[in-house]
Amino acid sequence: MSRFETPSDTATGNLVDLLLGGLPAEAVLTDPDVTAAYANDMASFCPAGSPAVVVLPRTVEQVQHVMRTATALRVPVVPQGARTGLSGAANASDGCIVLSLTKMDRILEINPVDRIAVAEPGVINAALSRAVGEHGLYYPPDPSSWEMCTIGGNIGTASGGLCCVKYGVTAEYVLGLDVVLADGRLMSTGRRTAKGVAGYDLTRLFVGSEGSLGIVVGAVLGLRPKPPEQLVLAAEFASAAAACDAVCRIMEGGHVPSLLELMDRTTVKAVNAMAQMGLPESTEALLLAAFDTTAPAADLAAVGALCEAAGATQVVPADDVAESELLLQARRLSLTALEAVKGVTMIDDVCVPRSRLAEMLEGVDRIAEKYRLTIGVVAHAGDGNTHPTVCFDPADPDESRRARESFDEIMALGLELGGTITGEHGVGVLKKEWLAREIGPVGMEMQRAVKQAFDPLNILNPGKLF
Amino acid sequence: MSRFETPSDTATGNLVDLLLGGLPAEAVLTDPDVTAAYANDMASFCPAGSPAVVVLPRTVEQVQHVMRTATALRVPVVPQGARTGLSGAANASDGCIVLSLTKMDRILEINPVDRIAVAEPGVINAALSRAVGEHGLYYPPDPSSWEMCTIGGNIGTASGGLCCVKYGVTAEYVLGLDVVLADGRLMSTGRRTAKGVAGYDLTRLFVGSEGSLGIVVGAVLGLRPKPPEQLVLAAEFASAAAACDAVCRIMEGGHVPSLLELMDRTTVKAVNAMAQMGLPESTEALLLAAFDTTAPAADLAAVGALCEAAGATQVVPADDVAESELLLQARRLSLTALEAVKGVTMIDDVCVPRSRLAEMLEGVDRIAEKYRLTIGVVAHAGDGNTHPTVCFDPADPDESRRARESFDEIMALGLELGGTITGEHGVGVLKKEWLAREIGPVGMEMQRAVKQAFDPLNILNPGKLF
């Protein structure tokens, strides 16, 4: 040891030397200015530490080497995709190895007969969607970050999107996984077949486990035939309750929309302020419904009638795909517009039974008033999955405190209404104190037992989820 | 102890006394003639022991009492539904408590807005299907035994059915569970909401776990809107390979049939022999396709054309629901007809990628010839899920041995083709030696670690799966 090195420098030096034994030099980043850029995902209010090193493996063997090294030295490993997550699950901890899977970005197979794709974890969601689209196939999961986020990140966070109301979430499309375990061994789960029930469903256990059970290094993904382009209807309501009533009527009526989104008054105003979209300022809630069926106009007519029966003040069905895209613009701009209100937003992700959606929106209104905050709600209304988005100025400590408190109160409300603290963003760091409230002590004990079974040394993304 | 009692009698007496402390007398069966009737499910070649006692709880608390008693005395517990399973997963072991959930048969809730039902485990699949049907809803999983089998059994075995090609398997419809753990504690998993990702997905871990991780005492089930009645097309082929080619063309063509079933030559002959259905004896394979869309005739026409392109010798689309039912009769009678060939059958359940279906059928033909056996294949062809059904005379030891050997060779073939040893029937006793071959040593170790986490005393259905 040179007298200028601290013990901690030596430990890191040793770690880096060992990593370089199985990784090329360009795959091991140690410059603190560079590694600092890997500290955070996109969540607010989530502390992050400084990684000791960032590794960018390109092969399964390299990932195995990283995990063997981490196990040997008892160093925590934080797996990362594109760091677009919203719960801090990908945030670094002090002295950790950040294991970025972004360089493992090959699509290995697309099979239109078996309707599967085999992909490495670093493949961008949009790249996969486009590639399978060329074969007439469709990979439904479409989180808002789909142009940036990775399949591995989607699997780690069990992410959702706009299409879930018809097509379900990421979990439904993961048939099998290759996983590097904490000690570096490789395990395959699941199958390439349409069905399969051999043993416990470890595949689904990994989906949404936020890198805390193993490192996903490959996935067999289920695909669907590409549906027709969807046609969109917009409906304006004079109250959020009426819009929620329309949602209930649509779902109770047996309709299967490919999208059913709601924007509240605050969100509509924010979008108007930013983009001059000419949405009536009197709009208390805007509902967007879409169908990708063979006869979407008939579906839109039926749903439009239900919206009117629920009190819609205006119903605008699109005539074609171009008009549909225009109607969706308002929804697409929502989060950016809400960010513009105060500079920063904190996006919640509470899912309630859709029959309780109106109570949820009413409650969020009450909470916004109580804490003197602007909280806009955009919701995957068909799923009851709300994103109450708290706008605040981070330079104002009092407002920041109120933002955090309102956020928690929104989760409490969701639980009270029979919902969950997270519909699609995950627990990460942001909601780990809330997990126990939802799951209860017995559930927590069994969750920890599962963690212990896969990661006895607690080196896989420690401090997340629990 | 009276001098006429053996130590084992005393142990059983003690067990029964303790059980009676929390169960009414009529819920505790000890008459060996009665308990013997609970020894087996419907699998062939699976040994079963003699239960010490059969309990029939009606409440969650009673199940908790049973599990606390079992834990205190270290007595194995074998949970049972209707015992229609085909892998021996519900077979009793010597001295066990058979825990029959059949008396917990209440449908607690049906909610058309949230599209969920809440049910106890003993509800019969058909009873649930009919009850939700009255609300315009649809519970898709439809194993052949649907008129007898229970929802709890379906969850335990992750069962499938004819509808899976469009609607997926039981696992897709289980949103949340109430589970009594080995030590009697109650745990809730999952959610009532359309989406939810709070913590590890323990719900899916229980689906297909064959009662080896906990006792399911309640389930939140996802429902769909009831689709239109399906219209069926039958297509005859001069070779199994041509029928499989048609299956590939249909799936590659982006079609979404609600049913896509295949019967091979042997099965067609058996059905003809039993029911004089007038199927041409020259038929080498019969394909049945159905659509439950809004315009099924157009779908049938498109699929009929693909069948003809693949070499179908005859294509018969049904004009209405009654004709459709007639066409499905042959499929419905298949297993009974194959049973009639030799008195007993052994039904395999190998699922391969559908692109390998032709190779699978060809291989089964080869195996039948090698072992001088009649093996009929019915297949959920759209899923690549084959049920090679070995017909044999159990009074003939040599034929029985050949039947067992051919069964194993069929599983080996499935694995070789990239498939799984079980698409929907589960592992149970029947296939436990094969699980390791499919999953490999690392997978087996992690499967066992999960089992250990939930059932450290190994009292939950021991000897199944592993």
Automatic annotation (TrEMBL), chains A, B:
Its cofactor is FAD. Keywords: FAD, Flavoprotein, Oxidoreductase. It comes from the Bacteria. Residues 47-226 form the FAD-binding PCMH-type domain. InterPro entries: FAD-bd_oxidored_4_C, FAD-bd_PCMH, FAD-bd_PCMH-like_sf, FAD-bd_PCMH_sub2, FAD-linked_Oxase-like_C, FAD-linked_OxidoTrans_Type4, Oxid_FAD_bind_N, Vanillyl_alc_oxidase_C-sub2. It holds the Pfam family FAD-oxidase_C. SUPFAM superfamilies: FAD-binding/transporter-associated domain-like, FAD-linked oxidases, C-terminal domain. GO terms for molecular function: FAD binding; oxidoreductase activity. Belongs to the FAD-binding oxidoreductase/transferase type 4 family. This is FAD-binding oxidoreductase.
